[in-house]
Automatic annotation (TrEMBL):
InterPro entries: AtsA-like_MBL-fold, Metallo-B-lactamas, RibonucZ/Hydroxyglut_hydro
CDD domains membership: arylsulfatase_AtsA-like_MBL-fold (cd07719)
Pfam families reported in the protein's UniProt record: Lactamase_B_2
Domain Metallo-beta-lactamase: 71-281
Lineage: unclassified sequences, metagenomes, ecological metagenomes
Gene3D superfamilies given in the database record: Ribonuclease Z/Hydroxyacylglutathione hydrolase-like
Alphabetized GO MF terms: 3'-tRNA processing endoribonuclease activity
Name of the protein: Metallo-beta-lactamase domain-containing protein
Keyword entries, A-Z: Hydrolase
Length: 349
């Protein structure tokens, strides 16, 4: 028995000494660091460039209301070597890189409207794809106003682009690729890019006007992204027989509770801001009818007003909703295999 205990003691001491060498010495730390970096580079959560799967990745699920570590509005729609980003809310570029989305293949950014929580990361997104090796200027699609927004971002980042080209060289970062190109879209007018058919449609986010949603069709599969809007007929029409409808959603019980809380401490200004939010986002109670009328296979809620901070708040957000309605988080991915009816939902982080 003593011999066994002695062997165990020596073994434990050797393990402790090895751990000390690995974690507390420069050489050990360097070996560990190399392995961690290699594992990270090889550990891609998805095979993004699969032409037989239409992927929808939630790179931002939050709205500005409330306190959350989620990114703001951002949805990736991807298939094969083509992918689009719908809106670039704050924090979304971090999630794109975390998911190892092939930024060099970014085909275009599509804006639903020009509220700050939908456009603020455009500069970072453009920079990330330029550095990754995108070979053409980034097209940024949007309704009336897109030229002004894109020109503004180009001007704001003009010095940054100059510095980076001077530092890394024009062969690595060609200056003509760094500036973005605005592309005006018109509601109802189809845009075709490769095998994608993209149909913008008008929504109700007044006083924000114009505001649009987008329908994507690819190899027999379809996804609709509402953007910010009330529950309106135009969304139901655009979503007819779609596989997936991602819709902006507001929880009236949670928003009312927030308004009561700020009112109780005398914050009249914030109470008015919260009250104003109610009339231009879709209450969860109104969305079931939109999905039913459209005949969509799956309804998923994003741009959550407010984003649930824990499981209890998420349960409140989901009150009255059918069990098959998805309340998404950053990192939710919908996989729609081409020419099938299957929808796989996974959480990659």
């Amino acid at each position: 028995m003593r011999k066994v205990l002695l062997i165990l003691g020596v073994g434990s001491a050797l393990l402790a000494a090895t751990a000390l060498v690995v974690t507390q010495t420069s050489s050990g730390q360097n070996v560990l660091l190399k392995r961690l970096i290699a594992a990270r580079l090889l550990d891609a959560p998805l095979v993004w460039e699969d032409p037989d799967v239409l992927r929808v990745f939630v790179c931002g699920s939050a709205s500005p209301l409330g306190v959350s570590d989620r990114a703001q509005s951002c949805i990736v729609v991807a298939a094969g070597s083509t992918f689009f980003i719908v809106d670039t809310g704050a924090g979304s570029t971090r999630n794109l890189l975390r998911a190892q989305v092939p930024m060099q293949s970014l085909t275009g950014v599509l804006f639903t409207h020009f509220h700050s929580d939908h456009i603020s990361a455009l500069g970072d997104t453009n920079l990330a794809s330029w550095v990754a090796g995108r070979t053409t200027p980034l097209n940024v699609y949007g309704p009336r106003g897109v030229v002004r927004v894109v020109d503004g971002f180009n001007e704001a980042y003009a010095l940054d682009r100059t510095y980076r080209t001077m530092h890394h060289g024009s062969e690595l970062l060609p200056p003509e690729i760094g500036a973005m190109q605005p592309q005006l879209i018109v509601s109802g007018k189809v845009v075709e890019v490769g095998e994608f058919k993209i149909t913008p449609f008008s929504v109700d986010h007044g006083p924000v006007e114009p505001a649009v949603g987008y329908r994507f069709d690819y190899r027999g599969r379809s996804v609709v992204i509402s953007g910010d809007t009330n529950a309106v007929q135009s969304t139901a029409v655009a979503s007819r027989d779609a596989d997936l409808l991602l819709h902006d959603a507001l929880s009236r019980p949670l928003v009312d509770a927030m308004k009561d809380a700020v009112t109780s401490v005398g914050n009249v200004r914030m109470a008015q801001v919260i009250d104003d939010i109610l009339d231009y986002h879709a209450d969860t109670d109104s969305l079931i009818e939109v999905a039913r009328e459209a005949g969509v296979t799956m309804l998923a809620l994003y741009h959550l007003v407010p984003a649930p901070a824990n499981t209890i708040v998420k349960s409140i957000f989901g009150r009255g909703l059918p069990a098959d309605v998805r309340i998404v988080d950053d990192g939710t991915v919908f996989n729609l295999a081409a020419n099938t009816d299957a929808i796989e939902v996974v959480q990659i982080f």
